[in-house]
Design goal:
Elements: E1 2-5, E2 11-13, E3 15-18, H1 29-32, E4 43-48, E5 55-64, E6 69-77, E7 88-89, H2 91-107, E8 112-115, H3 119-129, E9 132-134, E10 137-141, H4 142-151
Parallel strand pairs: 6-8
Antiparallel strand pairs: 1-2, 1-7, 3-4, 4-5, 5-6, 8-10, 9-10
Helix pairs in contact: 2-4
Length: 154
């Protein structure tokens, strides 16, 4: 998996790992947009460089076996990596593709990922990542889901 340094276009390898209890000491609402302590009831992942502890992005997932679905409960790039002045691009895409991989791992050909985005982000997620509209939520399944995994080499 890779992200891109915006100014230099240089690609950098990243990894996605489970957030540890110690990580929560450094995950602040000011740096990551939300109170991530509230997400401990779900499975929370961090995206970072392999040789660095700095967290570049976070994602909370919930498995819903009765619907063969993985739901992205919360997704955020660090504050310094959002907006037009961000340092790195591709953080959210890699995290979403990772959620797709987890769904494939759990449900194989029936993989399905959903997300309830903020209203202003709905059309962006649909255009950027191939999500389909399902009313209040958006989702990925079948070809768009696998296309996103291929795009981010997951």
């Amino acid at each position: 998996m890779e992200i891109t340094h915006v100014k230099s276009s240089q690609k950098k390898d990243v990894v996605i790992e489970l957030v540890s209890e110690e990580d929560y000491l450094f995950i602040t609402e000011d740096d990551y947009h939300f109170d991530w302590e509230l997400e401990k009831k779900n499975v929370v992942y961090k995206l970072k460089f392999p040789d660095d502890d700095e967290i570049l992005g976070l994602m909370s997932l919930k498995d819903i076996p009765s619907e063969s679905r993985v739901e992205i409960i919360l997704l955020a790039s660090s504050v310094i990596n959002t907006g037009k002045n961000k340092i790195y691009d591709g953080i959210a895409g890699n995290l979403i593709a990772f959620a797709c991989r987890e769904s494939v791992r759990l449900y194989a050909d029936y993989a399905f990922v959903s997300l309830h985005p903020k209203t202003e982000l709905k059309s962006y997620y649909m255009a950027q990542y191939g999500f389909q509209d399902a009313g209040r939520q958006i989702y990925l399944e079948s070809k768009p889901l696998f296309n996103l995994m291929n795009k981010y080499q997951i």
